[in-house]
Amino acid sequence: MGSWKDFSSTRWNERTVKALTGGDTITARFMRQDFFSFVPTHKLIVGANHRPRVRGQEEAMWRRIRLVPFEVTIPADERDPDLGRKLRAESAGILAWAVRGCVDWQRERLGVPAAVKAATSEYRDEQDHLGPFLEDACELAPGVFTATAALFAAYTSWCSRTGAQAWQRENFREGLLERDHALRARKGAKGARGIEGLRLRTKTPTVSIDDLTRGGR
């Protein structure tokens, strides 16, 4: 199933992508007709000149994406206006080629070419908004609690310095938790929300989980 759209200022609706690619029954309708449900038997292909933005780095989203680059442009003087007629004349051979390809697919399933793997990896790196911030300003620290307010302040300061567009605070917090399952959402001794397992490299108040526990007694 194909869809073509201008994605120049759009990001993926991750919930919809997961619903359409998870293999579960889909409910849909044709324009001005009744709804019906069906089990998907297709791959969803989206064509665009611009890559949609991806907010998260969670594997559940990225294992659904395969970026297929189309890097060849046929120069105007090499284009064949009679190509359609020539292909129709070879339609029987083309159909036989397609059937052989279908048999190969049923036997071997779909592999991922090296060019697609490389393009998808590059796309994921481009969309990794939090990775550079974490590398520059944070370090993993098991048992250490850092307030969300302190993390978000450091993040917005980093965005100002680097020119990156800052996320909203709640999206930032969710992005951290989605990114690394070793990180946990917790509340501090005075009820302040924060993250366990992450520390700022700068001088920002952090406490150990043992101190948090003692403080709450």
Order of helices and strands: EHEEEHHHHHEHHEEEH
How large is the count of helical segments?
A: 9
Rg result: 24 Å
| Strand arrangement, major sheet | 6-7-5-8
Spatial gap, N to C terminus: 59 Å
Gross morphology: elongated
Q: How are the elements arranged and paired?
A:
Blueprint: E1 2-4, H1 14-21, E2 26-28, E3 36-38, E4 45-47, H2 59-62, H3 83-89, H4 91-108, H5 114-127, H6 130-137, E5 138-147, H7 148-162, H8 169-179, E6 184-187, E7 193-200, E8 207-208, H9 209-215
Parallel strand pairs: 1-4
Antiparallel strand pairs: 2-3, 5-7, 5-8, 6-7
Question: Can you characterise this structure?
Answer:
By secondary structure, this protein is α+β, with helices and mostly antiparallel strands. The protein is built from 9 helices and 8 strands. A 4-stranded antiparallel β-sheet has the order 6-7-5-8. Strand 2 and strand 3 (36-38) form a beta hairpin. The model has no long low-confidence stretch (mean pLDDT 87).
What's this entry about, in short?
By secondary structure, the chain is an alpha+beta fold.
